[in-house]
Write a structure and sequence with these properties.
Blueprint lengths: L1 H11 L6 E3 L2 E5 L8 E4 L5 H9 L6 E6 L2 H4 L7 E3 L5 E7 L12 E7 L2 E7 L5 E10 L2 E9 L8 H15 L4 E6 L1 H9 L3 E11 L2
Parallel strand pairs: 3-4, 10-11
Antiparallel strand pairs: 1-2, 2-3, 4-12, 5-12, 6-11, 6-12, 7-8, 8-9, 9-10
Length: 207
């Protein structure tokens, strides 16, 4: 599931494909002032964490893995810090079609570019109120960048976006949904049947 998430994230963000490493994967990240690249580890093993960290010489390189942050912190060498505020949740769901309808006063637009499908919800003035996207990888899809603008929250837009993405993924042959969620996102996704499989601990090289 970690490999699927890493690959789908790279496709969604138009980043290079993950490169295999002895400890997992590495993804080069461009055009992001906060991140130059990320190592994604499929498991939280002390020797793997230390090896991945030792390979890094460029600041703003991240490391992400399925583990509790408290477990990882003692293994980090000098220059590395836990990103407590960015700790997330690896979640998955068996996709189900629901044929959702945009809430009253809103319209939806679906666009596909390559393997990436984006759902945008527009208000009456044609301004974007919410959006989400996914990368379809055969039988799995990785959901990414689900956002509702503050003025339009608590109106069911996030629910609609997630359901619309699921329906489109099923049309393309996917049956499993995977994502990395924030605390706020997790609360929404759980109402839609998504289950947490692991905490995603995150740390960054800031010498």
């Amino acid at each position: 599931m970690i490999g699927t998430w890493a690959t789908g994230w790279a496709v969604s963000r138009q980043a290079p494909s993950p490169v295999d490493k002895p400890w997992g994967f590495y993804i080069d990240v461009a055009d992001n002032p906060l991140e130059v690249g990320r190592h994604v580890l499929p498991e939280a093993d002390e020797s793997l964490v230390r090896s991945a960290a030792a390979s890094v010489t460029v600041p703003r390189t991240w490391m992400k893995m399925p583990a509790e942050p408290e477990e990882i912190e003692p293994w980090l060498p000098e220059g590395w810090v836990m990103a407590w505020e960015d700790t997330g949740h690896l979640m998955a769901v068996d996709l189900v079609a629901t044929d959702p309808v945009a809430p009253e006063g809103y319209t939806a637009a679906v666009e596909a570019v390559g393997a990436v499908v984006r759902v945008r919800v527009l208000d009456a003035a044609g301004e974007q109120a919410a959006q989400g996207q996914m990368a379809v990888l055969g039988e799995a899809t990785v959901v990414d960048r689900v956002v509702t603008e503050e003025a339009h929250r608590r109106r069911g837009l996030g629910d609609f976006v997630m359901r619309a993405l699921a329906d489109r993924a099923l049309e393309q042959g996917a049956t499993l949904g995977v994502l990395g969620a924030t605390d706020a996102g997790r609360a929404l996704y759980e109402t839609l049947g998504w289950k947490k499989h692991a905490t995603l601990a995150e740390c960054v090289y800031r010498p």
